[in-house]
Amino acid sequence: MAPALLFVATFVLYPFGQLIYTSFTDTSLLGGGSWVGLANYQRIFAGDPQFWRSLLFTVRYTVIITPILMGLGYALALLTASNARVLRFARAVTFMPVVVGLGTSSLLWYWLFNQQVGLFDKALVDLHLSDRMIVWFTSADWGLWAVIISVTWKVVGFGMILFIAAIQSISHEIIEASQMDGASYWKRVQLIYLPLTFRTILLVTLVSVIGSMLAFDQLYIMTGGNPRGQTFSSVYWIYQTAFVKFQLGYGSALSVVLTATIMVGAAAQIYLSSRGSRQ
Amino acid sequence: MTDATLARQLPAARVGHKGTSQRGIRFVVAAVAVFIAALMLAPIAMSLLASIKTTADAVAVPPHYLPQALSIENYQKIYNYQAGLWVYVGNSVAVAGLAIIVVIVLTVPAGYGLARFHFPGKEVLFLLLLLPLMIPYQALLIPLYLMFAKLGLANTWIGLAIVHAMLQLPFSVYLMRNAFEGLPRELEEAAVIDGASSLQIFSRIALPLVVPAIVTVSLFAFITSWNEFLAALIMMSKETSFTVPVMVTGVRIGQQSSVDWGALQAGVIVSMVPCIAIYVLLQKYYVSGLLNGAVK
Questions:
Q1: By the CB < 8 Å criterion, does A149 face chain B?
Q2: Which of A64, B38, B71, B262 could join B54 in a cystine, given CB atoms 3.0 to 4.6 angstroms apart?
Q3: In chain B, which among 141-160 make CB contacts under 8 A with chain A?
């Protein structure tokens, strides 16, 4: 165990300390590194509207995509939870994009969404769902939806597979009893499946929310933060600050704020859900 | 858990209800499932088809769903892209291989220790090992970047492998601990009676029995490392040290600022193939590992 602990101390704990220290300096890729006290933090709260815009955008992205992922994932799980061969096949295929890289899938969808050669756009036109090839990435709202569609394709199988496992672990006596009592399918979903898989739903929601709050690849590749910086996520803005504008000290302060935000959010979610499941 | 064992545990879901309406419902469910499977597969199929179009066909406006003629041009372009495809695949494989080694060397003994020895503060140590879950690695990239620059680990395989190993550490420790805990203690007790040393017990008895868990841990480490984008983008800044996903992103920028869509999709296919192959061939290890790590 000692080597593993040493590893965590060296590559997680020590850097975390360094991160906090660096956030009080003006370190840049070009040198510097003198102590500037709280100046970086003052700048976050007083002089960096772009960071707050990015955080707000990230929250908006998370608030929209989380219910979509949970709802669709659960619906797919209910649909394919029994073990007929065709359902097992649908399950396996739905899960497949989960193993593909998010960067790779974003490049794939970046092409599908292109207004000239994109086959997703063309399919919408051919199915008469749209009267022309849609230009997705010149508008922040359309760009956001393009990203959401592509990420949903990529990760919906993750929740689905965990929900299926949870649904399948419900003892069949309970289900048989409810069938004897003449409960309809929807009643069973409402009164048996959902409550008995509640813990898994909370777990997947937590993982999904944290993942969305840390979004980077999909935006870096698909929107590039455009138009006019409206689609930067927090991590993307930190990357931009630290590694494009070379402001490592200020980037560290932003990272500290983001980490704190996520920790507080996760703690709140865990606290609320543990209270919820006790009741 | 494999599908087979799940099936055994779950007759209820399959209990046939009498009557033709049930059969009708089952038919509709199957049809919807097939439709969803087709929707999920379509993007990958479209990408594959685009990758074997000719360059001109791949940038045609309006686009065609199917290639007008088959061509390997796009793959040739990817093959010869900048330093050559093998340099980038080599980087990705080397980083993933090192990440797997680091993860196994660290988490197999740690998992054994957590499962078999009792000592004060064990729970605290376990939580410490889960720390990378609580501090997002995205936030640690600035200090790690500075640290690696000082240690000469910037643009090296081992530097990036360390970051990727860190990402996989909590999941892997958890999985290894569960694997060792799942072994019957009687085996080890019998070995003690036969006079085996504790090192012998670990290496001759316990270790061979957790090979499936080690395979699972390695698979996940490979896929995480192969796909990881942000750390690779930051740590590997030299053009010859790019990993595959970073290199494919470069293809998009193209020669005359116009995108070579066919070559881009060939790159997408190249970076998807190893992961999909592993998933299809070793699904049992993959899905069971995921369920073990997440549900238990």
A1: no
A2: B71
A3: 141-147
